[in-house]
Amino acid sequence: MRRLLARRMKFHLFGAFFVSLGCAALYKFGVAEPRKRAYAEFYKNYDAMKDFEAMRAAGVFESAPPK
Question: Where in the cell is it found (predicted)?
């Protein structure tokens, strides 16, 4: 029974470390990277002036009335 807590603590510490590394890797490659690619794809063809003109024509802005 001597050093039982220390032995189990070491095991659980390493286990928690590797589980957290796995979760971080899953998030990075399962969520962050696809999101980054989706944003890059969206802004590759995005025209801000076209979007502004569409919002202005819809009357979204008070300072820029529709033409």
Answer: Mitochondrion inner membrane
